[in-house]
Design a protein that fits this description.
By secondary structure, the chain is of the alpha+beta class. About 50% of the residues lie in helices and about 20% in strands. It has one domain: Hypothetical protein yfbM fold (3-Layer(aba) Sandwich). The chain is globular, with a radius of gyration of 13 Å.
Length: about 100
C-alpha cells in the first residue's frame, strides 16, 4: 500500500496526473515522527494515508518553508531520507506551478 503524490490540475485519471513520488505504508512512522518535530499542516494532512488530499501552489510554498526548517534539526537517517523526498516532491510541483495531490492507493 502506498500514498501516491501526483501533480496536475486534479487527481482523477481524466486530468492526467503525473505520479512524482510515493509514501509507502512502512514510512508512516517516519511521517508521524516528523509531525511531532514540526507543527506543519502539510505533514499532518499527508500522515493519513487513507485520505486523499490536495495542496494549492500557495499551500506548497508554506509547506516548503516548514520542510526546510526541519532540515536544520537532528533527524534519524530514515526521517532525513523521507524529508528529502518530500522536499523534492514539493519543489518539483512548485517549479511547474502545479497543485500537488496525495492519493490513497
Amino acid at each position: 500500500m502506498s500514498y501516491d503524490l501526483v501533480i496536475g490540475i486534479g487527481n482523477k485519471v481524466k486530468n492526467n496526473p503525473v505520479v512524482i513520488g510515493k509514501i509507502e505504508y512502512d514510512e508512516l512512522p517516519m511521517v508521524s515522527s516528523l509531525v511531532k518535530r514540526q507543527d506543519s499542516f502539510f505533514l499532518t494532512r499527508i500522515s493519513n494515508l487513507f485520505e486523499d488530499e490536495s495542496f494549492s501552489v500557495d499551500e506548497l510554498r508554506e509547506a516548503q518553508s516548514h520542510l526546510f526548517e526541519l532540515m536544520l534539526t537532528d533527524l534519524k537517517p530514515q526521517e532525513r531520507q523521507l524529508l528529502h523526498k518530500l522536499i523534492a516532491v514539493v519543489a518539483y510541483a512548485l517549479s511547474l506551478q502545479r497543485p500537488l495531490h496525495g492519493v490513497a492507493d
